[in-house]
Amino acid sequence: MHAPCNVVVLISGSGSNLQALIDSLDEDNSPARIRAVVSNRAEAFGLQRAQAANIDTHVVQHKDFADREAFDAALMEIIDTYQPQLVVLAGFMRILTAGFVRHYQGRLLNIHPSLLPKYKGLDTHRRALDAGDREHGCSVHFVTEELDGGPVAIQACLKIEPNESIDKLTDRVHAAEHIIYPLAVHWFAEGRLRLATQGAMLDDMLLPATGHLLRI
């Protein structure tokens, strides 16, 4: 059996996606192991989730650095001590520098709460409702220098219910995130998912622009 894929997770908040990853990898035969969790906020509840699972934790507070480059350099120094094959952004609320993204090219995943390329950026659930969309969801994508613009690996798509509240839609999308993010991490750890020049590949097949679609 291959050695498990080393994963480092970056968080800023409660870490619900981190918990979904921890739960999905809590097996002796898991293809990946989370070596460390790094947060830019000392009060992030996700750090407690990691500690409860005996995962190393680190805090790198962006306010302690003069600029983004210095912050990202400190972040990379910690991440690289764990020699990760994969770095996972799980609610990490910082825009990363081009140098950071290039350093981890092909091994940096993010989850975004919309059906990319729709609704890059913030407030995605309200924007989908305001637009009268019939469907909404979330996307796991490789990170590139374009914000929320890297090739998509997998999307979860759900129907928006008539007169659905933003709180209910938010909860449903969160639940979908907790399904597709562990799936994407497993695929990557098993060598099935990778980033190629032409886009995201699954089992050596080029995925469409919207990735592998899962209807929930």
TrEMBL record:
CDD domains: FMT_core_GART. Pathway: Purine metabolism; IMP biosynthesis via de novo pathway; N(2)-formyl-N(1)-(5-phospho-D-ribosyl)glycinamide from N(1)-(5-phospho-D-ribosyl)glycinamide (10-formyl THF route): step 1/1. It catalyses: N(1)-(5-phospho-beta-D-ribosyl)glycinamide + (6R)-10-formyltetrahydrofolate = N(2)-formyl-N(1)-(5-phospho-beta-D-ribosyl)glycinamide + (6S)-5,6,7,8-tetrahydrofolate + H(+). The record marks D148 as: Raises pKa of active site His. N(1)-(5-phospho-beta-D-ribosyl)glycinamide binds at G15, S16, N17. The active site is at H112. GO terms for biological process: 'de novo' IMP biosynthetic process. The gene is purN. Catalyzes the transfer of a formyl group from 10-formyltetrahydrofolate to 5-phospho-ribosyl-glycinamide (GAR), producing 5-phospho-ribosyl-N-formylglycinamide (FGAR) and tetrahydrofolate. It comes from Stutzerimonas zhaodongensis. (6R)-10-formyltetrahydrofolate binds at R68, M93, R94, I95, L96, N110. SUPFAM superfamilies: Formyltransferase. InterPro entries: Formyl_transf_N, Formyl_transf_N_sf, GART, GART_AS. GO terms for cellular component: cytosol. GO terms for molecular function: phosphoribosylglycinamide formyltransferase activity. PROSITE patterns: GART. This is Phosphoribosylglycinamide formyltransferase. It holds the Pfam family Formyl_trans_N. Belongs to the GART family. Keywords: Purine biosynthesis, Transferase. Its EC number is 2.1.2.2. Residues 6-185 form the Formyl transferase N-terminal domain.
